[in-house]
Amino acid sequence: MESRLRLFLLGIFAVMPFSAVAQEKQPADAEQPKEIIQQDPVIQPAVKRREVKQADIDTENFELSAYAGILSIEDFGSEPVYGLRLNYHITEDFFLQGAIGISEAGRTSAETFTGSTILTEEQRNYEFYTVAIGYNLLPGEAFIGRKTAFNTALYLIAGAGNTTFAGDDRFTITWGGGYRITVTDWMAVHLDVRDHIYSIDITGEDKNVNNFETSIGLSFFF
Amino acid sequence: MRILFYISLFVLSIYGHADESELSDKHLVKVADPYIELHTGPGRGYPIFYVVGRGDWVELKFRHADWYKVITEDSKEGWVSAAQLSLTLNPSGKRVDIRDPDEKDFRIRSWEYGAVTGELEGLAVLSFYGGYHFTENLSNEIILSQASNSTSSKLIFSPLNIIHEPFPDWKISPFFTLGTGWLQTKPKSTLASTVDRTDQYANYGVGARMHLTKRFLLRFDYKYYEVFTSRDQNEELEEWKVGFAFFF
Prior knowledge:
The structure holds two protein chains of two kinds.
Chain A: H1 2-38, E1 58-59, E2 62-72, E3 78-89, E4 94-104, H2 109-114, E5 125-144, E6 148-165, E7 168-184, E8 187-200, E9 207-221
Antiparallel strand pairs in A: 2-3, 2-9, 3-4, 4-5, 5-6, 6-7, 7-8, 8-9
Chain B: H1 2-24, E1 27-30, E2 35-39, E3 48-53, E4 57-64, E5 67-72, E6 77-81, H2 103-107, E7 111-120, E8 123-133, E9 138-148, E10 152-164, E11 172-187, E12 197-213, E13 216-228, E14 235-247
Antiparallel strand pairs in B: 1-4, 2-3, 4-5, 5-6, 7-8, 7-14, 8-9, 9-10, 10-11, 11-12, 12-13, 13-14
């Protein structure tokens, strides 16, 4: 009995130092990596990063374009049209557009046939503006030869505006699409087709007319 | 002789300009993000043709929407998304996303410009407005509207539109408006009686605004006009409009 107790105590004494060491070791193990992290880096970076503020970097989100084309004015023939468009690119997908344009209506078939006149010269002035939202539907690249590639985009636009024609203001819905070829960082070529829809009663009855405009334009980013 | 003088002046001016621009216009940055990918165009679908690792230097040329045009040390030019440059552009080295105007900026905006379209008593209407916010709750707007249908067209100039926004921090923020201005009615020239008339009006209305993204917001307006005509009866008009606006 006595010997068994002694053996037990001896056993405890024999094991105790190990367990004590183990207890001491555990927290030491856990703390070690922390100490390494808190040390200063061995190599101090010699190059100081230059501060570039985001606001200092040029943004090229505006695009101003001048265009010329043909406007088919329903009943009044197809006439040259000139205008300006200003785009604001919000994201890579969407842009806002404000556009103005002028043209002059020709003579209707009836006028040519009978020699009469429906509109005075002043009333033939055709002026319009549009505010629209645009979406770059198919961005891509176009290649000329082996080494030259231009970024391009096929876009859609839809908006509303006003047309002053035949002496009156007419609320106008405009929609269409275009193809943009970015020639350099700051210049692009546009091919556009759009439909201007408004209501007019100049030929006797009220009707909606579709005036198609096709144009080519040159734009500058700033 | 004089031509030579002008040519030399021209050449000198070019050199002078080049020196100046090289010093001040170059935005060289050290890439702090793990790597940046150069796309051939400013869009997510354009192919990646080059990768620059952390620690290399690039020059930022300009920004187009959410993309930066960069030039690498070995003269490769490409487009990098703003999101991928978020660490590089922040000198403190802490991770901060490229900050676009958000809900908070929307709430404390001072200027607001927009275009809205809808219907004014059977006439299609298109309006442009500019507004200034005195406080988060109170603003004034100047509105120019053009409306037309087959019988007449109207031009409305509205210099006073006091807007009260009781809950500016709501996602869809309602507002109440009270205003006055002048309304010019022009019968279509094809009609027999073509007498233009201009009358003053007062209006009240309700509406709501919602922040969309960045500097843009969506807006809905309903207004009731009382037009003080020179005839026996006042003219009453109802108008509703929706549209987009941006703020600063």
